[in-house]
Fold this sequence. Notes:
binds tryptophan, Rossmann fold, two-stranded parallel ribbon, 5 strands, mainly alpha, Tyrosyl-Transfer RNA Synthetase, three-stranded parallel beta sheet, 7% strand, binds adenosine-5'-diphosphate
Amino acid sequence: xxxxxxxxxxxxxxxxxxxxxxxxxxxxxxxxxxxxxxxxxxxxxxxxxxxxxxxxxxxxxxxxxxxxxxxxxxxxxxxxxxxxxxxxxxxxxxxxxxxxxxxxxxxxxxxxxxxxxxxxxxxxxxxxxxxxxxxxxxxxxxxxxxxxxxxxxxxxxxxxxxxxxxxxxxxxxxxxxxxxxxxxxxxxxxxxxxxxxxxxxxxxxxxxxxxxxxxxxxxxxxxxxxxxxxxxxxxxxxxxxxxxxxxxxxxxxxxxxxxxxxxxxxxxxxxxxxxxxxxxxxxxxxxxxxxxxxxxxxxxxxxxxxxxxxxxxxxxxxxxxxxxxxxxxxx
Length: 331
Ligand code: ADP
Ligand code: TRP
């Protein structure tokens, strides 16, 4: 178990929000205790949608500080920035040779992004899943903690591993599996009545938000006119509030408001106040540590440098073996 390898990453396109935290980063913190972990910042991937990032190094540092504030420990896990490990690109090239345009074109995140940026449907966006597969396979990772929305990319990564093994008649790459914190995929809802919390949906509660901002955002959450008959099913906007409460509050609190819903005595204002309270309790220590870690750029850069060295070592080992398997001279 201890030798099993874990890898995951997040694109530095903004601050981390509660969806990132509960969907992914919380698992990182748990897994570093038991596994050989690599956690990285996917700055190359962010070029697929943000070709001219304002300050790409600062954005990477922001996520790094937030990773550390959430409890990822550079003594336990390898933390690095994707663009510091150029070995990845060579594996990306080999994987692209065995990936078909038909399957890449069917990836829903590609179709969605192509719709959002019709003037920039670039080849990097199209091959996003093979770069992600290279990220994973270069460390021969077995587990990948990500949110539910990454399932299709993970399926592509498994295909890349399987296909490489089949073509070259080897068992070199393990098939990477999604890892979920409590067994099931979690989708952190938005509180604006829509589906998930996400940066492009503009409905995020960020880890960097201070107490006042969190309370304000929660109090603004969309609700309806209330249940009309006892024990009625919950419409999506209300279910979202309950789902969020299930994530940050105690089971007793959820039960209390559930009963209020069922007997039609619920007051959304009270529920939101409680939800904000519980959210602040979970977020406060992280918030304080973000401020602390962000203030020391030198330390962040040192951590990234050490991480890059370790990641490059692991990637180079894999790459050499891949070159040998395909028939190239090892470096
Ligand atoms: P965003 O949707 O805000 O752009 P990313 O796509 O960068 O977020 O996601 C980074 C990680 O956080 C991924 O593992 C993703 O699955 C997870 N994640 C993002 N939003 C949510 C959410 N609302 N619920 C669960 N996981 C999420
Ligand atoms: N696609 C992931 C996201 O949008 C980011 C990512 C890039 C990733 N490469 C990865 C996640 C490798 C896990 C493993 O969140």
